[in-house]
Automatic annotation (TrEMBL), chain A:
A GO molecular-function annotation: sigma factor activity
Protein name, per record: Sigma-70 family RNA polymerase sigma factor
UniProt-listed Pfam families: Sigma70_ECF (PF07638)
PANTHER family referenced in this protein's UniProt entry, alphabetically: RNA POLYMERASE ECF-TYPE SIGMA FACTO (PTHR43133), SIMILAR TO RNA POLYMERASE SIGMA-E FACTOR (PTHR43133:SF39)
Gene Ontology biological process terms from the UniProt entry: DNA-templated transcription initiation
Alphabetized UniProt keyword annotations: Sigma factor, Transcription, Transcription regulation
Taxonomic classification: Bacteria, Pseudomonadati, Verrucomicrobiota, Verrucomicrobiia, Verrucomicrobiales
Organism of origin: Luteolibacter pohnpeiensis
Domain RNA polymerase sigma-70 ECF-like HTH per the UniProt entry, residue ranges: 18-175
Length: 181, 774
């Protein structure tokens, strides 16, 4: 599963499936965490350096990458990322509820934001898959517009536009759920 | 145009929807916006309603996602945390994971113990075995950090340190890479104590503390002249070493936060969760304000001010523990808006016991300390930590000067505050309060409860994105322009990341690429890349300045004067954003002037000369004066100009009287400047007097001596003394400049004085060959 061989394969791979990637992504995340990357002030570049992004760089190595393969990778890896983050947010949320807090319940905890996005995203996927896709890439993977533009073959500007619209749609969806709740 | 299906599935429809959305948002005026939407959807009521709702949602969603993004970061960190637990064992063998243990050897260094970590490196103490035995500090890049990006970052730090040569800055001694390719560099081992604790332990009085502090100012000033901003000045980064020759403070760890083990626990550091670097108590408002794009040298001045504050009162202006209790955005708000108490006030607010203790550490009693702080020192410190950086000292040198004035009982410049000043401050404070008030109100309505000002930022960003994309429409290479702009505007300093590679290393673009190539020693390629890049669009920033300055000098040393001039022109433009005092004390203008005088037409040089006169007169220091004289006297000039330059000459004279060079002036060069001045005036007797004085100072590389002898030759020529003229001409001819092609980076500016001497030499040859006697 891990080792040099897999790395060499990746650059030539064109067909990805989630279950093939999941372990690799996990592996890389683990490696990164194990080397205590998180403590670094390399977190200067937090915005651009989502865990998945770094995972990609390390998995794929340097050199010319065909954007199609990267797009596939990122799509699948973003699902993995989402899974990880949501799993975590849920754990945190549960823990918080256990530990009684006297803090004002008005204030939203980080977990809440994430879970809200996650839940509404499922709904958005049904009605507008393209918008959902970009939320997945932008929000869960933390990819930049430029990278997404390259992957999808669009311009940076249209990516940003799409993102702005997707956010609005998702927000509406969240309000809906709020109303229904 | 649109089917009934509200969620258009066809590509074209989607694009149309997006375009309409964007356009609507671009219309800030609500009436125009409504008008537009009504027009566009005039045949479709339902679609109009939908789009209206979306547009409404846009602003709120933007705000929401700002918070959501932060929350995602925090969860991501947590998730990474969780991975660390032993549920996930290491894979069997992976050479990359081999830790560097004490006892192991790297090159000619044997590691003895680990002394710290932070940033992207770990610092070890090591024994150097050859060519000389001594203890050093070795900083090696962290495991798992060896992506190209981080390596380049590491290299930049090394380069930055290598460029500096100052007794109060830890020196870089060596650099290399292990056999597995991990880069490291070796520094002078600074064994010492953090400055604040050292001063307390030694019970240094205020005067002594100020003198120590002045050395730090000088060190930082030195770094600034090399185009490097430290960005993380705080007590743990300044160690004091006591020896028989006295105490030497040393600044360490440029650019990247370093934390020793005790530091971590005591100091609040938000490197992990948020996108802030450094310790909040020491961060200047512009560092805290993520909207800002250029952290310049004045940011260091702020941090120096905070350090001074702490040296004087025993604590920083903002209490760390209460800071850490606030959330990130509230902390930012506080650092941005709240005026800290004066040092004397801070001291007065302490309880009695603390006051006694603090005063004792400063070898006095509470009432004496209080009166010492009040007035001048209060003013100086507060000026250094002004929120508005334009109101601060623009350079550490300025701060140093005011402290010197204080020490010699001269009036201090910081105390100029009049009613207007106070009024301005009042307005500014209230203005900010108004904005936050509206934001708070808004957030209550929206119900978000936090990150209110971030909302405003996002809003601006949203509108700006729309605007930007509209502008870009006109440009041919639309994407590149956006990228150039956005990249440059992305908080470069904040992200501490020039290296916005975007893709895993394939093509390197822009300033980032140039930097990397430079750091790999590939100056040739770096230069070529820089040439291909539209240098004029490079935004001014300390990082860009460092790169361009390096290449400017590199080009000049290799005789590529066209490229050099191009770069120096950029630096010249960049300098216009700076305080002219600081600029003229640097060498950029001198270099440009020398190049123009030698390679461009007389008109071009003349134009620059005039500019310099307008910009930099009157000069405020001997150093500035000497530089200005150098710039303006490369060729003969009019009486009018000479009259204007008299001020500079007199300023130089004050410096030249001294027998020692120090921060303020270099008498040997001052004398040369004066000699040149007199020669240009036609006062050859004085020119000779001052040339001799310049030559009376020994040392130097020969350029000064050559220039001085040229002046003497020309002077004797005017006076009709052929024999002496010949003598000095021969002496001048015999002094040869070194070969610059093989120079290392350390000798960056050396070429300019040789260039000046060459210009004089050419002039001298011309005049003296005619051999006519007056």
């Amino acid at each position: 599963m891990h080792g040099v061989t897999d790395r060499a394969d990746i650059s030539h791979e064109t067909h990805w499936s989630s279950d093939r990637l999941m372990p690799l992504v996990y592996d890389e995340l683990r490696r990164l965490a194990a080397s205590r990357m998180r403590k670094e002030a390399e977190g200067h570049t937090l915005q651009a350096t989502a865990l998945v992004h770094e995972a990609w760089i390390r998995l794929a190595g340097s050199g010319e990458q065909r954007w199609e393969s990267r797009a596939h990778f990122f799509g699948a890896a973003s699902h993995a990322m989402r899974h990880i983050l949501v799993h975590h947010a849920r754990r945190k949320s549960a823990l918080k509820r256990q530990a009684e807090s006297f803090q004002d319940s008005e204030e939203r905890k980080p977990e809440d934001y994430l879970l809200m996005v996650h839940e509404s995203l499922d709904r958005l996927e049904k009605s507008d898959p393209d918008a959902a896709k970009i939320v997945l890439l932008k929000f869960f993977s933390g990819l930049g517009s430029k990278e997404i533009a390259e992957m999808t073959g669009s311009s940076v500007r249209s990516v940003e536009r799409r993102w702005a619209l997707a956010k609005a749609k998702l927000y509406q969806m969240m309000q809906h759920e709020d109303d229904e709740a | 145009m649109k089917p009934d299906d509200p969620h258009a599935s066809s590509e074209a429809d989607r694009e149309i929807e997006e375009a309409v959305f964007e356009t609507a948002l671009g219309l800030e005026d609500p009436d125009s916006r409504d008008e537009f939407l009504k027009q566009w959807f005039r045949h479709d009521e339902a679609a109009l309603a939908r789009m209206r709702k979306l547009v409404e949602a846009a602003e709120k969603s933007a705000a929401f996602f700002v918070d959501a993004r932060e929350s995602r970061m925090s969860i991501a960190w947590d998730a990474a945390d969780a991975f660390e637990s032993s549920e996930f064992p290491f894979p069997a063998e992976d050479p990359k994971l081999h830790l560097v243990e004490p006892g192991s050897r790297i090159g000619r260094y044997r590691l003895t113990q680990r002394i710290g970590e932070g940033g992207c490196g770990v610092v070890y103490e090591a024994d150097q075995e050859e060519p000389v035995r001594r203890k050093v500090a070795l900083k090696i890049i962290r495991l798992g950090m060896d992506t190209e990006r981080v390596i380049a970052r590491f290299e930049i730090e090394r380069q930055a340190l290598a460029m500096m040569d100052h007794p109060n800055i830890a020196q870089v001694l060596d650099a290399g890479a292990t056999d597995t390719g991990r880069p490291y560099f070796v520094m002078e081992l600074v064994e010492g104590e953090r400055i604040t604790t050292w001063c307390d332990r030694q019970k240094l009085d205020i005067d002594a503390r100020l003198k120590l502090f002045i050395q730090i100012c000088q060190a930082i000033q030195h770094a600034h002249q090399k185009g490097i901003v430290h960005r993380d000045i705080k007590p743990s980064n300044i160690l004091v070493k006591s020896s028989d020759t006295g105490a030497t403070p040393k600044v360490i760890d440029f650019g990247i936060a370093k934390a020793t083990s005790d530091d971590r626990k005591k100091r609040t550091s938000i490197t992990e969760r948020d996108q802030m670097i450094g310790t909040p108590a020491y961060m200047s408002p512009e560092q805290v304000d993520l909207r800002n794009i250029d952290i310049d040298t004045r940011s260091d001045v702020y941090s120096l001010g905070v350090l001074l504050y702490e040296l004087l009162t025993g604590r920083p202006p903002f209490d760390e523990t209460s800071l850490s209790k606030l959330g990130a955005s509230k902390m930012r708000l506080m650092l941005l808006n709240t005026e800290p108490p004066l040092p004397s006030q801070r001291f007065a607010a302490l309880n009695r016991a603390d006051q006694v203790e603090t005063a004792a550490a400063r070898k006095c009693d509470p009432s004496k300390l209080s009166s010492l702080l009040r007035g001048d020192l209060d003013a100086i410190v507060m000026k250094a930590i002004e929120k508005d950086r334009n109101r601060r000292y623009s350079t550490p040198y300025g701060l140093e000067l005011d402290l010197r004035r204080f020490l010699s009982d001269q009036p201090v410049h910081a105390r100029k505050a009049g009613r207007v000043y106070l009024l301005e401050k009042f307005f500014r404070r209230n203005q900010v309060a108004c904005i936050s008030g509206a934001a708070v109100l808004l957030s209550l309505v929206i119900g978000l409860g936090s990150a209110t000002w971030l909302f405003w930022r996002e809003r601006h960003a949203l509108a700006e994105q729309v605007r930007l994309s509209k502008e870009a429409e006109a440009a041919r290479n639309e994407e590149d322009r956006l990228r150039t702009q956005v990249n440059a505007k992305t908080n470069i300093a904040q992200l501490a990341n020039l290296l916005n590679l975007g893709r895993a290393g394939s093509d390197i673009q822009g300033i980032a690429g140039v930097t990397i190539l430079l750091n790999e020693g590939k100056a040739e390629e770096a230069n070529a890349l820089l040439e291909s890049y539209p240098i004029d669009s490079v935004e001014f920033s300390p990082d860009a300045t460092y790169v361009i300055r390096t290449l400017a000098h590199w080009n000049a040393m290799r005789g590529r004067w066209k490229s050099a001039i191009h770069c120096f022109r950029w630096l010249d433009r960049a300098g216009r954003h700076e305080n002219p005092e600081a600029v003229i004390e640097g060498t950029d203008c001198m270099c440009l002037a020398a190049l123009l005088a030698e390679y461009e037409s007389p008109e071009v040089y003349e134009a620059y000369r005039q500019e310099a006169l307008d910009r930099f007169l009157p000069t405020k220091s001997a150093l500035a004066a000497e530089h200005l004289l150098k710039i303006c006297l490369l060729r003969p000039t009019t009486e009018e100009n000479l009259e204007r330059l008299k001020q500079a000459m007199e300023m130089c004279a004050s410096g030249a009287r001294s027998n020692y060079s120090n921060r303020d002036s270099f008498p040997q060069w001052d004398a040369l400047g004066i000699a040149t001045y007199y020669h240009r005036c036609g006062n050859e007797q004085q020119a000779l007097v001052w040339s001799k004085r310049s030559l009376s100072f020994r040392g130097g590389r020969g350029d000064r001596q050559r220039s001085a002898n040229c002046l003497q030759a020309m002077a004797y020529h005017e006076l009709g003394d052929v024999k002496s003229m010949k003598e000095h001409l021969d002496t001048a001819r015999s002094i040869k400049p070194p070969n610059f092609d093989t120079s290392s980076d350390m000798m960056l500016e050396v070429w300019v004085d040789w260039a000046v001497s060459r210009i004089l030499m050419t002039e001298t040859e011309l005049i003296c060959s005619s051999l006519s006697i007056k």
